[in-house]
Fold:
Amino acid sequence: DQQVKQNSPSLSVQEGRISILNCDYTNSMFDYFLWYKKYPAEGPTFLISISSIKDKNEDGRFTVFLNKSAKHLSLHIVPSQPGDSAVYFCAASRGSQGNLIFGKGTKLSVK
Amino acid sequence: DTGVSQNPRHKITKRGQNVTFRCDPISEHNRLYWYRQTLGQGPEFLTYFQNEAQLEKSRLLSDRFSAERPKGSFSTLEIQRTEQGDSAMYLCASSKTDSGNTIYFGEGSWLTVV
Structure:
């Protein structure tokens, strides 16, 4: 039973355009959401997070949107750059314990 | 700022042998986590410590897995009697109690059981 789902295994985007990565969750008790980026053979790198009390958080080229009623979040990268090519993981947590539930990831290719 | 450090980065072992991985968290981070990642999956939570106390260990995969953090600084993850299904990347992460739920990962330790 997957509580965090990333339904697109891969996404290909042209350099300079917008990348939109999507994530759905099933547990309404989740109250904190994060995006991580991962290169092959490396650990995940934290990108951006959002609390359930907000619906948008922005950091440079990265913006995360949260739609609690739809249990959906998305990561927008504008403009996309070749260095953004990596696997992106969505993660969620509840409470303050920090044990995150991850999706399976979306592989982004920027050309 | 030194990040989370894990070693060894790669370990190849024969089935049935014991292996131990070490993790040094970011200094002043009092929480430490172990995750496992297999091909095509996201990281899977195993256990975590706050200081030296292991607050959650029910997600450890079997009784062959154990973790310690004796002085509240570095941690070790031991797998006894390894099986081929244990082949994966083992990730350590750390955080501060007051930094919300953002955790910072190390580069991981690859285990291959042959």
